[in-house]
Amino acid sequence: MEAPTISNELRNLFSLVLFPGGCFLILLGLSYEWVDRKLLARFQNRIGPRWFQPLADTLKLLAKEEVVPENVDLRLFVGLPIVALTGALTAGLYVPILGVKTAFSFSGDLIVTLYMLSLLTLCMGLAGANTLDRFSLIGATRTLTQLFSYESPFLLALLGPALFSSNWQISEIAASAGGRWLLLTQPIGFLVAIIALMGKLELPPFDAPEAETEIVAGALTEYSGRGLALFRLGKGVELVVGLTLISVLYLGGIADPLTFLIKTMALLFIIVVLQALLTRLRIDQTVGLWWRYGALLVLLQWFVIILL
Amino acid sequence: MEKQTTTHSFIVPIGPQHPALKEPSHFRIAVDGEIVTGASVRLGYAHRGIEKATESRTWIQNLYLLERICGICSHIHGMAYCLAVERLAQVDVPARAQAIRVLFAELERIHSHLLWLGVAAHEAGFDTLFMYSWRDRETVMDILEQLSGNRVNYSANVLGGVKFDVDQLCIESILTGIDFLEERTQYYLKVVSTDALFLQRTRGIGTMSRRQAEVLGTVGPTARASGVDRDIRIEAPYAAYNQFPIQLTLDDKGDLEARVLVRLRELFESYRVIRQILSDLPPGDLTVRMPRRIQQGETVLRVEAPRGELFYFVRSNGSDMPERIKVRTPTICNLLSVVKLAVGHQLADVPMILVGIDPCFSCNDRTVIVDRANETSRQWSWKELRQYGSTYYQQRAT
Question: Domain B50-356, what architecture?
Answer without folding.
Answer: Orthogonal Bundle (1.10)
